[in-house]
TrEMBL record:
Pfam families noted in UniProt: adh_short
PANTHER family tied to this protein: 5-KETO-D-GLUCONATE 5-REDUCTASE, ALCOHOL DEHYDROGENASE, PUTATIVE (AFU_ORTHOLOGUE AFUA_3G03445)-RELATED
Protein name: SDR family NAD(P)-dependent oxidoreductase
Keyword Oxidoreductase: yes
Similarity field: Belongs to the short-chain dehydrogenases/reductases (SDR) family.
InterPro entries per record: NAD(P)-bd_dom_sf (IPR036291), SDR_fam (IPR002347)
Coiled-coil regions listed: none
Biological source species: Azohydromonas lata
UniProt keyword annotations, A-Z: Oxidoreductase
Length: 225
């Protein structure tokens, strides 16, 4: 049975680069995001390199879909990577920022569900199995906005601060059960298939690899800039 990494919010940037890094170590990969066609393109890239890949179309803010996927993976789930995060781009691909008063209620609710609540759903669903096995890693894609928030990117800033708090709060109790949780604060711009994307993938691998070291040397946070 192959050890599996599940990427929730799998896209062509950090999500794919991190999956590629784990696949190189022999991990099977499950990619999950809303757009099934785009997922299949990423799966094809991984399969070309010899990886065992499954893609699953789901929305991370759907608690039952997230729980069902984690339940289906059962003992195979070794690494959970929560990577979903909402940034808005215009038609030319430029990042769009918004003042709080310009965001509709439905955008605020949806942003918080994707940036934080989905992570809570996923961690809650994965925790019992990992604790019972006394083995598992939860990796969260954080951001520099966690500690240097921006008014014009407020829902993402709140989201990254939330992920950082989740890792900090759960680190000790999970460690006591042999399960590792860590957030990587990505504090630079990252494009798909760039040196930065692969650097982030490597940084996630190094956080996960701490599990082979004495627990005293594990850390709940690292920074990539
Ligand atoms: N890129 C950067 O410069 C940068 C810098 C710092 C931090 N980050 C963080 O890194 C993470 C990944 O960013 P990235 O730019 O590299 O993106 P990515 O890994 O290429 O893609 C992230 C994917 O998340 C998926 N997603 C969004 N909402 C979702 C939902 N409700 N349910 C399921 N999947 C969802 C999107 O796919 P679907 O639309 O198909 O669902 C998207 O393709 C984000 O958390 C981001 O905040 C990025």
């Amino acid at each position: 049975m192959s050890k599996t990494i599940l990427t929730l919010g799998a896209g062509p940037g950090i999500g794919l680069a991190t999956a590629q890094r784990f696949a190189r170590e022999g991990y099977a990969v499950v990619l999950a995001a809303r757009d099934g066609k785009r997922l299949e393109r990423q799966a094809a890239v991984l399969r070309t390199a010899g990886a065992d890949v499954q893609s699953v179309a789901l929305d991370v803010s759907d608690a039952s879909a997230v729980s069902a996927l984690i339940r289906d993976l059962g003992d195979r789930l070794d690494v959970l990577h929560y990577n979903a995060g909402i940034l808005r781009y215009d038609a030319q691909g430029a990042l769009q920022t918004h003042a709080l008063e310009d965001l509709a209620e439905r955008d605020l609710e949806s942003d918080v569900r994707i940036n934080i609540t989905g992570a809570l759903y996923a961690i809650r669903a994965a925790m019992p199995g990992m604790k019972a096995r006394q083995r598992g890693t939860m990796l969260l894609t954080g951001g520099g906005l966690a500690t240097h928030p921006a008014a014009e990117l407020l829902t993402l800033s709140v989201g990254k601060a939330g992920l950082r708090t989740i890792a900090q709060a759960l680190f000790q109790p999970l460690k006591a059960s042999g399960v590792h949780i860590a957030v990587l604060d990505v504090a630079t711009l990252v494009s798909p298939d760039s040196a930065q994307a692969h650097g982030v993938g490597e940084a996630f691998w190094q956080l996960h690899a701490q599990r082979e070291q004495p627990v005293e040397s594990w850390s709940w946070e690292a920074r990539y800039s």
